[in-house]
Amino acid sequence: MSYPFDFLVYIGRFQPFHKGHLAVVEAGLQQAGHLIVLCGSSHQPRSTRNPWQWQEREQMLRASLPDSVQSRLLVAPLMDAHYNDEQWVRNVQVTVNGLVATHHRLPHKTPRIGLIGHRKEHSSYYLNLFPQWVSAQVEHYAGINATALRAGFFAAQTERDPAFAQMALEQLPPAVSEWLQMFSATAACQELRDEQAFVAKYRRAWAAAPYEPSFVTVDAVVVQSGHVLLVERKARPGKGLLALPGGFVDPHERIRDACLRELKEETRIKVPVPVLRGSIRRADVFDEPYRSARGRTITHAFYIELEPSSELPKVKGGDDARTAQWVPLGELDPEQMFEDHYFIIQAMVGL
Ligand code: NAD
Questions:
Q1: Ligand 1: which residue has its CA nearest to atom 11?
Q2: CA of 10 to the centre of ligand 1 (A)
Q3: How far apart are CA 86 and CA 67, in angstroms?
Q4: Is the confidence at residue 26, as pLDDT, over 90?
């Protein structure tokens, strides 16, 4: 059978995989020999915005399709690079090139590659970043909202909750509803439900504000001799994850002072404040709109580069930090890191 495309690329988060996504996948399989599905925002810890790992999203997708098309579906993880679109585009290119090299059966013919997706709103701007691929537009399937599906699923204490069950019936392929039913019984699901309850309470505290609030925070990226200073979070959100030392700016405080204060409180680093202040190499703002589940949070990060030494300064967790530790840059694990802190380090250190 011949198709207008050898490969169509479909990028998305699929959190969860819903009937709108399924319709796009079916349209893609009608037009291409292979559909490459890239599961975005992979290799992050589970969060209420990105609850399911890429392998779980692949299971939802494959379970929703017949056996006859499985071999034409190529599914791969795709990491974000929140503050470097070029790096993200490169991740897409490298992944697609690898899959095309493996699956293109006519090496003497240039593969016809296209990109499929629906330009829904500002968040789909990324569909314009691939001019080398023909764009295959698809219809929007109305009445489907992944954000509401996630909120409904985690707010429901069981997947049989009538409000969620109705939403699931209308918006999810039956195989995904079944998959979620199984997931509902796991400890990971309970953890996400607890996190969701925390975030909902946090947001309720601000519900009376006349406008949705924006919070200002600070983060310290302290580096010495190939190690970065991290803390383990003592409380929700992100309890147990590794984070940059940092926190909220006090009402009467300058931003740089807030950063040094939080750094000292959370790590008790044995370096005098004037030395820390003098070691600030640069500052930058990190403002990805969804970077925090608590609400719009804009952070100012300070890159503090300490003189190389064979001994790292002593640190000890304090305040909101259970522990403080120096982590070799080569051992940073994005799946263990809170919010966008991995991407902040990536941007500031140049990883
Ligand atoms: P999504 O699951 O919301 O949507 C995926 C695709 O399906 C989109 O084309 C969307 O328009 C389409 N779709 C969704 N609902 C539909 C419906 N009802 N009917 C028809 N089509 C529908 O995923 P997303 O958030 O758009 O995924 C983009 C991914 O790319 C994310 O992981 C994001 O982080 C990543 N990204 C990363 C960077 C970076 O790191 N620099 C930059 C851009 C994008």
A1: 118
A2: 9
A3: 36
A4: yes
